[in-house]
Amino acid sequence: MLNFSELKKIIENHSTFLVTTHVNPDADAIGSQMALYNILKKLNKQVYAINHSPTPYYLEFLDENSAIEKYDAGKHNTIIEQCGVIIIADLNYVNRTVRMEKAIRNSSAVKVCIDHHQDPEDFFDYKFSSTEYSATGEIIYDFLKETGITDIDISTAEKIYAAIMTDTGSFRFERTSPKIHRIMAELLEIGVNPTLVYDRIYDRSRFCKIKLLGESLSGIKLNDEKNLSWMVITKEMLSRTCADEADVDGFVNFCLSIENVKIGILFFELKEGIKISFRSKGNIMVNKLAGEFGGGGHINASGARVTNKKLDACIAEVLEKAKKYLPK
Q1: CB neighbour class for 169 (10 Å; exposed up to 12, middle 13-18, buried from 19)
Q2: Is the pLDDT of residue 322 over 90?
């Protein structure tokens, strides 16, 4: 059990807060960040929401008042240094805040981690983290219910709903428990419209995203045993379709949707380096595979970033190392 009374005490004893999340945020990241922002604002705290990355266009509805600011060192480093508490949501390694990392590490603020990923960094003053949770949004829900620090209004409910819905794969992943459905029922009773939330996240894709998806799917590959699939997205493909990095979110899942495939991998060529997304089924620990390339994450969903490697060489090395994780 997480000691939510301790988190409540931290909030009650401080007046200024920074809430941030990881590079290229997903719905759990933005939903959790903005749910925390709402809670703190309702408690009359001074709150800053600052991220390394811009909010993906399909998640902007979770920041209805445009509170999130894109990090600018000249503008924000003083805030990071002088605020009383820094809450980092949905990540447990500070380097995933990218350009914000140095300022966060140097700040004298109390550092709080709220997260559900494995093996958190030994940096934070307080960690409210457990892999038993389906999403960071679920942790925030439990915090609200256990402490009663404030009520769950419709805005906060929508953010928590989006966080949990997406990180459970629309309620199909392993962590989708009876408890999750009871939470969802309560959020619907508060007034969340599940059709609208799903539509905003999944059914309002830009045309360029669909074009990029089409190109990506046309190049999808299988190994000889047909139990590993991979997809490659190059900088040239991104430029040609006018898509951006946020549009690629979720593409890797198509690799895993192929019959008999146990591991799916997406190689995404960036301006600097290669982003690799890993997915698996059952007890195949792709977090260990990601760890071989400096990454990590969940057992069945992980990622890594590789620099100083050519794309073809990176693909060959990852596919070779992936073999030992496949069933014999």
Answers
A1: middle
A2: yes
Q: In what order do the strands lie in the sheet with 16-20?
A: 68-70, 46-51, 16-20, 85-89, 110-115, 126-129
For the CA atoms of 181, 114, 101, 54, the dihedral, rounded to the nearest 10 degrees, stands at 30
Check: CB of residue 204 under 8 Å from CB of residue 239.
no
pTM of the model: 0.92
What the block records as the tokens of 126 is 């307080």
Place of tokens 């940096």: 123
CA-to-CA distance for 11 and 83, rounded, in angstroms? 12
For residue 120, the model assigns a pLDDT of: 87
Tens digit of pLDDT for each residue in 196-210?
A: 999 999 999 999 999
Is 137 in the same domain as 281?
no
- Domain containing 85 equals 4-202
Q: Are 108 and 238 within one domain?
A: no
Same domain, 152 and 96: yes
Q: Which residue type does 7 have?
A: L
